[in-house]
Amino acid sequence: MPGIKKAIFGRILLKLSGEALLGEKTFGIDRTFTEYLAVEIKGVADLGVQVGVVVGGGNIFRGVSDAASGMDRVSADHMGMLATIINALALQDALEHEGVFTRVLSAIEMREVAEPFIRRRAMRHMEKGRVAIFAAGTGNPYFSTDTAAALRAMEIKADVILKGTKVDGIYDADPVKHPRAKRFDRLTYLEVLQKGLKVMDTTAISLCMDNHLPIVVYDLKRRGNLRRLVLGERIGTLVKE
Length: 241
Known about the structure:
With 241 residues, the protein is of the alpha/beta class.
């Protein structure tokens, strides 16, 4: 029908940091904020967009955090992966309270709480309208959940990575500490790498660059931003060739 907007993406990969689930808390999971995220994701799924989500674990434990200082890096990273499982289950619960069918797929096998990640199964879930939450990173130490997001996005043939953050795009300095920091509307992958901008880690950016996968960094906390993005509005910062 005339006047009805259509999504410009058929399949997206939404990257959420573990810190995003903190909401107003300093540790753990803010149930109110996971409910907010569930509503945002449902608004996109209702448009017919297939949604995959990668969630971090920094609100509970990060392998490179101060809490892991002195630990064996492999053990610390495995603990971080388990933290992402907790977050994925919390997000799944919130989504299902909104009536969204959801599957958690883990890179570390734990069949009692999540399905093992199998690429074709994940794609089939999304084709059936289920939100697929990818947990436990890549299943390997020394790789961040940013890299996991880039990898999963390419495996499921996503059209774009949408990275939700606390600010409205990519800046040349931390806008919280530097009020005059400049925001970029658009960047190339090489500019991100050369300028040392903290968007995603260099492995993730390089993977996206090699496979021509665009990234949009946007303000996660502004209600309706995710839906506006998939409907084609210019929001946040686009990273592309």
